[in-house]
Amino acid sequence: MRKLFPNLEREDGLETVLEVPVPEETLLAGDDMSSRSSKTLCTNMKAWMRPHVERAPPSPIGRGAELQLMLGVIGAPLVPLPVVRAYNSALIRDLKEDPIEVSMAKYIVRQYIAASGGEQALDAIKSMYAMGQVRMTASEIPKGNGGDATSIGRKLRKGGAGEVGGFVLWQKQPDLWCLELVVSGCKISAGSDGKVAWRQTPWHQSHASRGPPRPLRRSLQGLDPRCTANLFANSICLGEKAVNGEDCFVLRLDAEAATLRARSSSSVEIIRNTVWGYFSQRTGLLVQLEDSHLLRIKSAAAKESVYWETTMESLIEDYRTIDGVNIAHAGRTSVSLFRFGETSDGHTRTRMEETWTVEEVDFNVWGLSTECFLPPADLKEEKEGGDFGGGGGLVAAKSVRPPFRVRPGPIAARIGPSQVAAIDDESDEEDGSQ
Prior knowledge:
20% helix, two-stranded antiparallel sheet, single chain, 16-stranded antiparallel sheet, DUF620, 2 domains
């Protein structure tokens, strides 16, 4: 990962320290590109290093709509429901008092706590820092009469190279976190101060999720065992299933109706939201995290509603011990985004995938204060009947940057900017299509 950006104007000039490290290939790619493409890349890099500029970075090589879709869906999704940090009180009760599926789930969570390093090691973590890199790809499978062999599973970039980038995640107990993610020169920020969870993107300035703040889903992908244990403390055990050659116990947790109502709005209804955890019978660690949600978008112009069903599966791998705690250092997230409810020709299924690796992890970071997790100053409460694209409950009073100029592409042909905004709105609400 590159932490310093070279001075492109003066060879003897000082290098710039990057807020978010980026993969080496992000900068080395310019050697094989045309001078125009190299200039565009450098312009994008400079743009996200100066977040106060009055315009958005140009769409990189015409991939603006596709990149916006991927970042909106899998960039910074949240978990389906708030997590109460009290797994001890929920698990220490006599297991005989609970139904068999509940007591089994609590026993599995206790085994997971022990496999992750034990309660003493987890309680010693007051803050955390993680840095890594990501690679995102997407494809679309049309559903309807017009789908031919050449249009099925079209990749955004040939050879599956995808979009590459890096991320930095900071966390502090309780319920404070901040994520910065840069992919192909575009930066998104997200965080929570314990009272509100917010997100900031180049195309849709500061906005916050409806309902109580929820943890970042990326943290549950093997980075925060404590939060994972708290999430599944009240789950039920469904049985067993083999995942990636590993025999696992399957735990399930459904978002309550009150939580769904709090995250819904007058134009968007979240019908259901469910999360599954697959815990290895051999190691006790989390092997796969899966969640699914269904939402209905009400349109004032059209009589029929549009439904979005999103399924996200994260395979978690490469556990390593850091200060006595097992932390996952690699994984892959697959997303299926299905739109239906209109005519059959309008049905589409979009697939996205993100692979990630974690390169640095540290606990109990000195000097990490609560001021580091304050939301943006332009975050204001949404008025009743406000813009649906505002992000589900809270929106910025003024958008500093205009949205991307979307050029037609494989996915943009069927999923336009307004539809991406709708998904992005829920992604804040649940993020991201989750």
